[in-house]
Amino acid sequence: MKVGSAAKSIVAAASAGTASLFTAMGDNVIVTGEWVTIALAVLGALGITYAVPNAAKSDQR
Predict the structure, then answer these.
(1) Which residues, in sequence order, are CB contacts of 56 under 8 Å at separation 6+?
(2) What's 2's DSSP letter?
(3) Residues of 22-48 as b/e, b for ≥16 C-beta within 10 angstroms?
(4) Please, what sign has the CA dihedral across residues 40, 45, 46, 50?
(5) Is a pLDDT exceeding 70 seen at residue 2?
(6) φ/ψ bin of 53: left (φ > 0), alpha (ψ from -120 to 50), beta (otherwise)
(7) pTM for the full predicted model
(8) Secondary structure E strands in the chain
(9) Which of 8, 41, 53, 58 might form a disulfide with 16, Cβ 3.0–4.6 angstroms?
(10) Rounded to whole angstroms, how far apart are CA atoms 41 and 25?
(11) pLDDT the model gives residue 17
């Protein structure tokens, strides 16, 4: 396993989870449905980001 693939997945999951958490905290209360949304955002970001490979390096100009 490449560290770059895992690192980008972790950063994407943290970003998605944080964004969902701040959105859910708009009324200062988090209900069960909002926790489910946060969990799905984190899991979706982990899965999608890990599955998509990094782009190949382009030639130097």
Answers:
(1) none
(2) -
(3) eebeeeeeeeeebeebbeebbeebbee
(4) positive
(5) no
(6) beta
(7) 0.76
(8) none
(9) 41
(10) 15
(11) 94
Q: Residue 28 and residue 39: Cα distance in Å, rounded?
A: 18
Q: How many CB atoms lie within 10 A of CB 53?
A: 8
- Checking if the pLDDT of 5 tops 70, the result is no
pLDDT at 58: 73
Domains of the chain, by residue range, sit at 3-51
Q: What is the pLDDT of residues 6-20, one digit of tens each?
A: 888 889 999 999 999
Distance CA 24, CA 33 (A): 10
Residues 24 and 1: their CA atoms lie apart, in Å, by 34
